[in-house]
From TrEMBL:
Keyword DNA-binding assigned: yes
Lineage: Bacteria, Thermotogati, Thermotogota, Thermotogae, Thermotogales
DNA-binding region: 29-48
InterPro entries assigned: Homeodomain-like_sf, HTH-type_Tx_Regulator, HTH_TetR
Source species: Fervidobacterium pennivorans (strain DSM 9078 / Ven5)
Protein name as catalogued: Transcriptional regulator
Amino acid sequence: MSSRSQETRKKILEAARKLFAEKGYDGVSMEDIAQASGVRKSLIYYYFESKEVLFEEVWIGVIEELEKELFPEVENEKSIAGAIKKLIKKYVEFTLNKSELSKLIARERMNILENGESLSRAKGKYVSLLNKLEKIFEKGKQEDVLNDIEPSTATEIISTVDSIPRKSLIKSVEEFLLKVILKEKVEH
């Protein structure tokens, strides 16, 4: 793919990401994306055969960006309690600092999970993320650093932080999650 071609594709993806975050999958047409990206609608179909394919590409990119924020530092942490604390902190930071992306996740999470047959790549990517989170909490349970909370519940709670509408509450939610999930306060 030529650099001009890559640039056009990138412009389409960025416009689509912004619109999907603002209006949701159902609220955005290919015409909207064409106008926002400054390209003809037919050119979008040259790169992406359908709105679903374009949405999946956007979704997978967003989840990959979230994973890059969460897992490298968590995996380097020596203690599981420290890893869980870092995981919560990083998820909250992602929600606060990458609001367009976290808004897209919050808005479309259920659509992805419920429409798995038509959005199977997107669902697979999201389920993979949830499984990685749950494995970290399972290790915390095995090493007895979790309060009386199931790893699946901890995963569900942390993965919905981006749904909190008032950003001013999110930092206090971080403290709350640490108290609810971990047995004792972990200092760094």
